[in-house]
Design brief:
CATH class: Mainly Beta
Order of helices and strands: HEEEEEEEEEEEEEEEEE
Strand content: over 45%
CATH superfamily: monomeric porin ompg
Largest sheet: 14 strands, antiparallel, barrel
Strand order of the largest sheet: 1-2-3-4-6-9-10-11-12-13-14-15-16-17
CATH architecture: Beta Barrel
Radius of gyration: 22 Å
Number of strands: 17
Distance between the termini: 53 Å
Helix content: under 10%
């Protein structure tokens, strides 16, 4: 019995980690999804995004992503550093990864550019098994908890691993399309010394496409899409964004197009977003309205902020995001 309990406690965070954290605002801080945006504005940029998932139940998850990058005109390259942190409040499971990102830009026509990138990361995750209580530690007759257990399961409180990913993007002044392949080396993330649990390959095809309306207006419309797959998990986000003056609004649907059982929902949430630009800053807030039968989860909300140190709104040949 004690071994079953231990395995369950180990497998829960492992299953969660097998799915990479996904941000609703991938179009606001696309560095969360594609490292080809490193130095994308041809200046120095920095930003952070915070995501809280399901605060209404006793299994909330908090995720933060921060980055800083710079463009080096003399070598036509961008270089940046990003940090991802992911924590579950109930299990105290924590995952942190630091990545070094490099991108090179190639002009393929008068309007279109191609940006391949590489990302090298170092990750660590810990669970805190010192808080795990096994059956033979409970002494009912003496009313005490023994500090040690005879269970032979060989647990590691933390796991360190090296990660390698690659992305590319094609873009013009108004639109971009990108493809990301994460965890190409499939690092071992098992919390036991004997086992091998590879981190599954994460694939994402994403785009922001300008939609001309034919009317003379300051408003701009974009179609947004982010198709993701990791092992048996899949997700498709799609919607539209409106930009007017310094404000932007978006509405997306998060869907599960390849349902694996009859109880799966096609539409999992409706995601609303609003943002604002001011003096080189970009602010964003989004809220995901749950449409599944999970219950009163409290939804998902994200707060983002980024700053462009060049503060150049007329960057020629830069992707619009």
């Amino acid at each position: 019995m004690k071994r079953i309990i231990a395995i369950l406690l180990i497998s829960i965070p492992s299953l969660v980690l097998s799915q990479d954290p996904i941000f609703t605002q991938f179009f606001m801080i696309p560095e969360t999804l594609n490292t080809s945006f490193t130095g994308g504005k041809k200046t120095t940029r920095a930003g952070i995004i915070h995501r809280t998932q399901w605060p209404g139940i006793n299994f909330s998850i908090n995720t933060q992503f921060a980055f800083v990058d710079n463009w080096f005109e003399e070598v036509n390259s961008g270089l940046g550093i990003s940090v991802l942190n992911h924590k579950e409040t109930s299990t105290r499971y924590n995952f942190t990864q630091v990545n070094l990102n490099y991108v090179y830009e190639i002009q393929i026509s008068n309007e279109w550019y191609f940006r391949p990138s590489l990302s090298f990361g170092f990750g660590t995750k810990d669970f805190g098994f010192q808080n795990l209580l096994l059956e033979d530690q409970i002494n009912i007759f003496q009313g005490i908890i023994n500090p040690t257990s005879s269970d032979l399961i060989n647990l590691s409180e933390n796991r360190l691993f090296f990660d390698f990913s690659s992305s590319f993007m094609v873009y013009n002044e108004n639109s971009w399309v990108g493809l990301t392949l994460k965890h190409l080396n499939k690092p071992n993330i098992s919390m036991t010394f004997e086992d091998q649990q590879p981190l599954d390959l994460f694939m994402s095809l994403h785009a922001s496409i300008y939609i001309p309306t034919g009317y003379r207006s300051e408003a701009k419309f974009y179609g947004l899409i982010n198709a993701m797959r990791q092992s048996e998990y899949n997700r498709l986000d799609f919607g539209t964004k409106l930009e007017y003056d310094r404000f932007s609004f978006a509405l997306l649907a998060a869907t599960n197009p390849l349902k694996h059982n009859a109880n799966s929902h096609f539409l999992t949430s409706i995601n609303a977003f609003m943002g604002m630009e001011w003096e080189g800053f970009k602010f964003g807030y989004s809220y995901d309205f749950n449409t599944s039968n999970i219950g009163r989860t409290g939804g998902v909300y994200e707060l983002s902020i980024s700053y462009d140190f060049g503060n150049d709104d007329n960057c020629f040949g830069c992707p619009d995001y």
